[in-house]
Amino acid sequence: MPEHNYLFTSQRLGFRSWTHDDLDQFAAMNADEEVMKHFPKPLSREESAEFLDRLFKHYAKHGYCYFAAEVLESREFIGFIGLAFQSYAAPFTPATDIGWRLKRSAWGKGYATEGAKRCLQFAFEDLQLEKVISTCPKQNHRSELVMQKIGMKKASEFDHPKLQDSPELQKCVVYEIEKE
């Protein structure tokens, strides 16, 4: 496995830019029905490649993205944790969102919480953002719990405009946190 230069690290995790070599593992994670339970559908390999391309472009434009996350000790890819600029039509956008998606074998280890705390630090200290939001479908209690654990407060509920074709997922919560 090649050595990766991390943009920053937390106690157990390294955060880095994406490479084309990530596609196999990224596509496998996005094809997992359990991982994608709170999304409209699992992604095909082609859809994952398109998502990866959007991550490259987002990083080039904004200097941040949903970063590839690895366990420092083993360099194992576990998914993504990071930030994304959101401009879809909602009362709280445009805004920078914090989000995460981890492969199943990385669940239950505190990685999402640890990584999200470190990404918030990056957002406020390095990027000098004033506020960060996070959203998820109302039934995604595990993600909502991470939002609470990292100090975010529930701001409201909304119908996500990008989930109109998935009515069971459209009712979402939005959390926010401001720079101290």
From TrEMBL:
Q: Supply the alphabetized keyword list.
A: Transferase
GO molecular function, a single term: acyltransferase activity, transferring groups other than amino-acyl groups
The organism sits in which domain of life? Bacteria
Domain named N-acetyltransferase: residues: 13-180
- Write down what this protein is called: Protein N-acetyltransferase, RimJ/RimL family
